[in-house]
Every structure is written in C-alpha cells, then in structure tokens.
Amino acid sequence: MKKPWFADAVVYQIYPMSFQDSNHDGIGDLNGIKQRLDYVDQLGANFIWLNPIYKSPNADNGYDISDYCAIQPAYGTLADFDSLLAAANRLNIGIMMDLVVNHTSEQHPWFLASKKNRNNPYADYYIWRDPVDGHAPNDWLGVFQGSAWTYVPERDQYYLHSFASAQPDLNWQNPAVRAEVRSIMKFWLDRGVRGFRMDAIDFPAKPKWSNEGQTFTNVGDAMPDLKRLNRYLQEINQQVLANYDRILTVGEMSTADPATAAEFSNLDGSELNMVFEFEHVDLAANKDKRIGKWSSDSVSVKDLKRVLSKWQVGLDGKGWNSLYWNNHDQPRAVSRFATDDPKWRVKAAKMLGTTLHLLQGTPYVYEGEEIGMTNAHLKTLQQYEDLDSLNAYHELVDEKHLVSGPQMLEYLAARSRDNARTPMQWNSESNAGFTDAQPWYALNPNYDQINVAESLSDPTSVFHYYQQLIQLRHANEVVKYGNYLELDPDDGECFAYVRQLESRRLLVISNFTENQIERDYGQNQGTRLIGNYDDDLGVSIRPYECKVYELNN
Ligand code: GLC
Ligand code: CA
Fold first, then answer.
1. Which of 16, 130, 170, 287 has a CA 20 to 30 Å removed from the CA of 484?
2. Residue 124 annotated in active site
3. 48-94, pLDDT tens digit by residue?
4. Domain check: are 315 and 444 in the same one?
5. In a domain, 3, yes or no
6. Ligand 1 atom closest to Cα of residue 64
C-alpha cells in the first residue's frame, strides 16, 4: 500500500456565511471563523475547507465570483484573511480554498467585456455559440433548471452556463483562461493556503459537440471529456502545485465512477489527491427521473452499502476516497441516513460517524455534523433561500405541473440545500450565539437543545465521540491504510466491514435500524475500541448501535 502524506487528514468544512458573525451584521465572517479556530482544533481536524469567500454578487452564495483575488466585503478583508490563515497555521490547521473556476459571475469584468462584442480581449474567455434556427445551439439543460444557454443581443450569440445563467462557463480551451486559473491559484498559495477544493472540476472539460442530435437532458450528462480533463489537471500540477509542498486537492466530480476517480486521484499525485463522488448521495435521485435529485425516498441500507463498498474496493491501492455524509449542498446526515428523532438522534449521529470515519479515505465533517445538527423541517416556500430549491419549485410545480405544491414542499424539506445552511448552533442564547443581530437566515429552532455549549459540557455528546473518531484516525495505522472487506452485503439492517493491514484487523459493526439485532462476526474474540453504548452485549446489537473491534486472531 502506498502511504499518501495526507492519509491522516480530517477536513472540517465551514460555510462562512453561517458559521460565526463577529461584527453584528447577522452574516458570518472571517474574524468569526478565527474566533472559533480553537473549537476546530479541539475537534482534531487538521484542514479547514472554506466555502467561497471571494467577492460575489451571491446569486449562488459565493459560487458566482466577480473577483478571485478579493474577499467578499461582508466577510472581511485580505488582511483579515491573512490573520485567519496565520492563526490556523499556528494550530497546524491548513486552509483549503474553494476554487470555483468552471464559471465566473456574470458580473465578473471578464464576462462584462466578453459579452460586449465578438472582438475584445475577453471575447473567447467564455463559450459562445451562434443561434441555430433562432434557437439555442443545442438542448442542454443546466444543473439549476432551464436551458444551459442564454442569448446576448450585443453578440447575437448564446453563452453556455452549466449552472445558473448568472454563472457563465469559462472556456478552458482558451490557454489564456487556463493561465488565469493558474495565477489565481498562485495568488492564494503564496499567501499560505494549503489546499483547494475544486468546484465542479469535471465541467471545464467540455466534450466536442455538433449541433445535431443533442439529446442530453442535463448538461452534466455530456461531461466530461476525460482525456482533456487529465490534461488540464496535469497542467495545473506541473505548472503550479509542483512548486509548493503538500497541497491538498479534492475535486468535486458528480460524473465520476470508481474507475475514472482512481485515475484522477492516482497515488502518484499527478492530478488530484481525491475526488468527491456523488453516487451515494444520488441513490434516491435515480429512482424517478422526472424529479431526479428531489426525490425524498429513503435509501435502503443495502444500496448504501453496495455503493460505498464499490468505492472502497475500486480505489484501494489505486486512488483515494473522500468520505462524506453531507456538505453545503446536501441535507443533514442524521436526518437523511438515520433519524433525527430526539430519542435516537445522538446514537444515530455517532453510528453514522463511525461507519464513515472507519473507511479508507479522508473524512469531511460539515459544520454542525459533529454536534448532530438536523434538517430544518421547513414548511413554506417563503422559508427557502437557495436558488436551486426555488428554481426547482418554479419549474416542477408552476411551469411543468409535474408535482403538486404540497408534494414539492415535502421534497424540499427532505432535500433542499438550505437544510445545511441554517446558522451554526453555538449555544442556547438568542440566535444560538451565531449573531446578536438579525441573522441572514433563520436558525433551526432546535438550537435550544442541540448546540456546541451543550455538547462540550457533556462527555457523552456527539462532539466528544467525533473527537475520539478523529484521534483514532490519527493514531491507528489500520484506519489510515488498511484495505476494506465488506461482510454480508445482503444484510439490509447491519453495515459490517473489516479493515485489514498486514496481520492487523479491525471490525466495524453498525446497526442502521431501531431494532435490536443479533449478529456474530467474531466480535466476542475482539477488543472493543470505540462504540456508542457504554457497555457491550457482544452478538446483540442495540438500536443504532455501532462498535469497532480490534480482532485478536
Ligand atoms: C458546486 C457547489 C455548489 C454550487 C455549484 C455551482 O456543486 O458545491 O454549491 O452551487 O457547484 O458552482
Ligand atoms: Ca458579520
């Protein structure tokens, strides 16, 4: 087994807008994050991934950037950033930036120039095509609903936007664009950042297309041209990353399968360190193509096991997995994959954490996951903020009449990204200690029960359990490097697997149900390392119980 330098990395993801307000305007900011660094350190994470903090009109909460080398004024200044970075480095926490370079904001000066006419220095920075019979060049649909093309009269052309129309796609086939990306990366690396999470990194590698015969329903189905993507990533490595030491890279790749991901995250470090796959979070989405990712159907434990196991086995020895249950684009893990019923929430959150953190790969903890934060359980459309959720309601209910309003509200309650974006719950005081002003987005009312202060004071909390899981990863070679063997793939209640490194073996058992079940994997001969019940009943496994053993034979 090759031992990558980042094998003990644990990444804590911060959504800056919703983490900690420090200057009484209701919006989280960089100084707020700095005040909370000790908390991240106490948890044990050694990297922080910051969602975008650049200047942005915020059509898509910072994923529409108008200046890559400036901080969003509401978050602070470059000086604040440098001070955050210095404080993080003192704690040995590396800061990873979100590199959003498939597209810019429509307000970026490059795009403002590009759309004026067909012959200006930025004319080819974006993807422009002539109309075909007075229509868009092909029938691609954007990820955020509607056509992926928008017409601009000044050029009498359409521009491509894989996401919202406010996010025009950059033209990576133009070498000048790739040079701009490299200089943005250098700008941040020279300040001292230690990694990049590369947003939608499969999208820049556009396929060749003709105007005929385009039948894709979603622009993502057409991406990427794999060879081209290999070349782009290698170029970034050779020309930028090779000049710095130990820069952690993870590419968001909704289109990857294990074979391609193994290639992109190959362990010689020539492309990416790892990839965010989407298969386990898109399981329900494949059930009904009409509503796709909005499907609120629960996912069977068997399917979840099948997909996670496939990725574990598929990348073993070839590439490296990113491990995550949730992030700023997904509902809260405990509500989605287990239960947020107060009776079981704490046990369930620990069980999910264990299942994930004992796998091979790099765990990502999304802010609030470590205290078992839950979905917001929103009831009305007015409570939503995210453009994807609002667009989807508009399209599926108002325009296409595919689902009824109440049905769509159910889908949104289960699936909307807004579930993850309610402010961080620090304590039980007003606005959960997130702000003393009007918060930019309403808090989850359960903050009086679920908050950091409570978690820190309770030795049996989800927080302290996550702390132990992270310590285990830092200390235990089998957790870091061991290979993976799934046990009983057909068991629809219990997720059990073995991690093995030479003669050492760990056994991980997680009960995903509310029932007590009996399973014998030889745990009675092992030593329990961690578990979410005080005692151990051996082959009996209680509701949402999880336990990890070192096997002695
Ligand atoms: C990624 C981001 C998401 C954003 C989209 C467009 O999927 O995670 O939040 O909306 O890219 O940039
Ligand atoms: Ca603020």
1. 287
2. no
3. 999 999 999 999 999 999 999 999 999 999 999 999 999 999 999 99
4. yes
5. no
6. 12
